[in-house]
Amino acid sequence: MAFYDQQFKILEVPPIVQELVGAGVKEPPSQYVLPEQYRPAAAAVSEMPEPIPIIDLSRLSAGSAEEFDKLRSALENWNLFLAVGHGMEPSFLAEAMKATREFFNLPIEEKQKYSNIVDGEKMSMDGYGNDMVVKENQVLDWNDRLNLLVEPESLRTYRLWPTQPPSFRDVLSEYTVRCKAATNIVLRNMAKMLNLQEEHLVNMIGDNSITLAIFNYYPQCPRPDHVLGLKAHTDGSIITINFADAEGLQLENNGWS
């Protein structure tokens, strides 16, 4: 927890992107504009050589040898897959997405109650805001985000958990539980692939591991060909579950797709 608890000195507090759009900007501010060679229109995007693999977690949990082999292939060749049979009903996922949208649609004064800026010059890992500006000429992502530590539960900073909409906290808590169940199915099968005891990875990670919920909001940009919603990156987590509500997600697997 030592690293996550730290607050980081920032050079400036970037503007809230949603507010820029609401103010009717015609051009994104310079700190959001990518050098020409890195702009989406200039980036080489190739067709996927094959569809992203689909894994049915319910069949995997039931011990399907076919699904186990599909998971092995997906991890060896893609490092990702589309999960189905995860036990989260469409109605629940719709409720989770609705609560997220309602938070970002709140007035700025309400959202700023959960700001990640501390004393005007430091930024915490938890809270509402956007990029951490730590160097000159840093290109910022065209998004606003809410970061929340959700596990271990004892370390949650509830003062930064939105109370509006009223369903937000309960939905996020339930979503966390369900994601952990799905994650553990994958970890158990990964352990079997490595000829380890089935619970080895689950126990190794344990109940005190850090789990983050990161909500990214991408307001419409007047010059979408000049910005990126989220820059190219590699997640530092063991497993990332991506619940997407937008087109345009790109991944690199022997070339961008």
From TrEMBL:
Asked whether the keyword Oxidoreductase is assigned, the reply is yes
Q: Which GO terms describe its molecular function?
A: metal ion binding; oxidoreductase activity
List, alphabetically, the InterPro entries matched: DIOX_N, IPNS-like_FE2OG_OXY, IPNS-like_sf, Plant_2OG-oxidoreductases
Q: Which Pfam families match?
A: 2OG-FeII_Oxy, DIOX_N
Q: Where is the Non-haem dioxygenase N-terminal domain?
A: 52-163
Q: Where is the Isopenicillin N synthase-like Fe(2+) 2OG dioxygenase domain?
A: 214-256
Q: Which UniProt keywords apply?
A: Iron, Metal-binding, Oxidoreductase
Signal peptide span: none
Top-level taxon in the UniProt lineage:
Eukaryota
Q: Kindly provide the name given to this protein in its UniProt entry.
A: Predicted protein
